[in-house]
């Protein structure tokens, strides 16, 4: 059964973005726009994680966390907020949030954090995060380091995010607009940027970048990672 994430944000565009991020990572999602709706939803069914904005109309995100913890509900919570002051981060963690991510965020990194937190909350880890393996490739989700046949390949932050997305979705075709939205967090597509990063990854992981074996172009559709 897929993990289920409750998304709480009063900005519809952010809710939609987070929904796509969670669904692209293979999880289910329910979205609400207020703290009151969030508490009502948690009372009706179980969730594996909450992504929570702080600046909500009515009950703000901090009060939502206090209400959850006051009821003894240990639901993992990642605050996703535009408030970047150290005080807000420390306060959120102090009252019971598990992580604090500031906007704008890297969608793939956020999805990785969400999955890792769900695993930790279930006690499924014993000291270290699991390593994702696909063909000759390995990705350490605790250190965000990438390997091919045991040899580390150094990636930039966006290369790292793109590679993690591919490894989580082997054989899945990603249209260019979806790829750009998930990696860059924007809906206005820069196709040249996508091609640049695809070519950089091919230079690093392919035996023959001119005839890519792993990162394939699906004509008219987008790209697919195959092992």
Structural overview:
- The protein has 227 residues and is α/β, with parallel strands linked by helices.
- The protein contains eight helices and twelve strands.
- The protein has a five-stranded parallel sheet, sandwiched between helices. Strands 6-7-8-9 form a four-stranded antiparallel sheet, with helices on one face. Strands 10-12-11 form a three-stranded antiparallel sheet.
- Residues 124-128 have low confidence and may be disordered.
Looking at this protein, list some descriptive labels.
5-stranded parallel sheet; single chain; 4-stranded antiparallel sheet; 41% helix; 227 residues; 8 helices; elongated; alpha/beta
Spell out the blueprint of helices and strands.
Layout: E1 4-8, H1 12-24, E2 28-32, H2 35-44, E3 49-52, H3 61-70, E4 77-81, H4 86-94, E5 99-102, H5 107-121, E6 131-134, E7 137-140, E8 145-148, E9 151-153, H6 157-168, E10 173-175, H7 176-184, H8 191-205, E11 215-218, E12 222-225
Parallel strand pairs: 1-2, 1-3, 3-4, 4-5
Antiparallel strand pairs: 6-7, 7-8, 8-9, 10-12, 11-12
Largest sheet, if any?
Answer: 5 strands, parallel
Helix content: 40-55%
Q: What's the total number of strands?
A: 12
Shape: elongated
**Could you name the ranges where pLDDT drops below 50 across 5 or more consecutive residues?**
124-128
| Oligomeric state of the chains in view | single chain
Order of helices and strands: EHEHEHEHEHEEEEHEHHEE
Number of helical segments with 4 or more residues: 8
User: What gap, in angstroms, lies between the N and C termini?
Assistant: 25 Å
What is the mean predicted local confidence, pLDDT? Answer: 89
Strand order of the largest sheet: 2-1-3-4-5
Query: Rg to the nearest angstrom?
Result: 19 Å
| Percent range for β-strand residues | 15-25%
Helix- and strand-based class?
A: alpha/beta
């Amino acid at each position: 059964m897929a993990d289920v994430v409750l998304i709480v944000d009063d900005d519809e565009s952010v809710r939609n973005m987070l929904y796509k991020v969670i669904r692209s990572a293979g999880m289910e999602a329910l979205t609400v726009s207020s703290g009151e709706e969030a508490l009502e939803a948690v009372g009706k069914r179980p969730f594996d994680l909450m992504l929570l904005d702080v600046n909500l109309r009515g009950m703000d995100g901090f009060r939502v966390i206090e209400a959850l913890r006051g009821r003894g509900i240990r639901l993992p919570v990642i605050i996703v907020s535009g408030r970047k002051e150290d005080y807000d981060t420390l306060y959120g963690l102090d009252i019971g949030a598990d992580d604090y991510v500031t906007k704008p965020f890297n969608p793939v990194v956020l999805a990785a954090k969400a999955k890792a937190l769900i695993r930790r909350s279930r006690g499924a880890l014993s000291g270290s995060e699991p390593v994702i393996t696909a063909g000759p490739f390995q990705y350490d989700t605790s250190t965000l380091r990438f390997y091919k046949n045991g040899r580390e390949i150094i990636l930039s932050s966006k290369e790292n995010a793109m590679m993690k997305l591919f490894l989580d979705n082997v054989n899945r075709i990603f249209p260019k607009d979806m790829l750009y939205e998930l990696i860059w967090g924007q809906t206005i597509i820069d196709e040249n940027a996508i091609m640049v990063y695809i070519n950089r990854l091919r230079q690093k992981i392919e035996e023959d970048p001119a005839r890519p074996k792993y990162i394939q172009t699906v004509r008219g559709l987008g790209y697919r990672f195959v092992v």
